[in-house]
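Reminder: ligand-aware prediction takes two inputs, not one.
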Amino acid sequence: MDKKRKISIAAPYLDKKEIAAMRKPLLSGWLTQGSCVEDFEKRFAKIHGVRYAVATTSCTTALHLALLALGIGPGDEVIVPSFTWIATANAVEYAGARPVFCDIEPDTYNLSVKGLKALINPRTRAVIPVHLFGLCAEMDKIKPICQQHKLRIIEDAACAVGASVNGKKAGSFGDIGCFSFHPRKIVTTGEGGMCTTDNKTVARYLTALRNHGASIPEEKRSLSDKPYRLPDFNILGYNYRMTDLQGAIGLVQLSRLKSFILQRQRWAQWYRDELKGLKWLKMPFVPAGYRHSYQSFVCYVDENKAPCSRNELMEKLYSRGVNTRSGTIAVHMQNYYVRKYNIDPDSLPVAKDCHLHSLAIPLHNRMSPQDYKYVARILKGI
Ligand SMILES: Cc1ncc(COP(=O)(O)O)c(C=O)c1O
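Here is what comes back for the chain with pyridoxal-5'-phosphate:
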């Protein structure tokens, strides 16, 4: 291990502004969901060009609520890409529905449109396109197919805060968009998530679902003229509320979003220029009109040309202080899903291939120019 350097795969950028913002909820004593979360939601909705945003404890819980809000449950099938984080499929399981795994496009790592068409059947109720690593799925092709078959769309935009296609933002294409504020994401609140929608009824339902199914949330009730009257509980809800401390941090993080993404885009371009001599390392592809927000910079290792395997490469880089990861996982190859649905790993060859050969290299807002140069130098030296 190089003693001098240790470059993490991701690290959140926060400073005294976030600390200062937390003073308000800390000193007021209102720590759970309150006015900071509400302000965060409003700002988030504005940035993403939607009418409503409903904060949750994570993107996983946002996906769970999104499925429930759209009435998806036992007997229903939901098409999800296999190459994603496990939470996309797990949320479908929580709702009692069946995740049906679809292959991905090798260039973009996103849902294969051809694969999607082939999987639709009378039990299919919804599709969850994932905007993986900060690049939107091909919504211009996916949406008409869903409309034709009357399928709901839940965007898994966990990695795609601020990403867009021809100016239209992630989270504004489908019925509901779901975002993550985990520390590996572009903006963070520690843990946290958000649902976005243009539908008022859906937004209201999500709002009740995340708060035990209460007909009126505490922060509204406490300000009403009858704060002593408890709400009605007409539906089965959950406690998926974000805290006001997180809301306060989130607001500051959003004010940094534009510069975070610009910085990531600049360094992504720098990597492309600097590493173009490595013919065995395929750089991430960005179709025209797409704004990639580079939650991760995920390459593909062509083992036919590479000096060693992807896994050996990860080991060598790690020994020199450079942390890498597989882009993500092929969920259909994970034991829970193999056991439950008896899935052949080779049935989705591109997802399997990317599971084995994708490589995320460090790119985040805490890296210095020297860090980037170091990563490139080590990679070129292998
Ligand atoms: C594509 C995708 N979906 C869902 C999630 C789950 O997000 P969270 O950790 O906020 O629950 C993640 C997190 O890594 C993700 O990358």
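The chain has 13 helices and 15 strands. The chain has two domains: 16-255, 257-381. We will return to this case in the review session.
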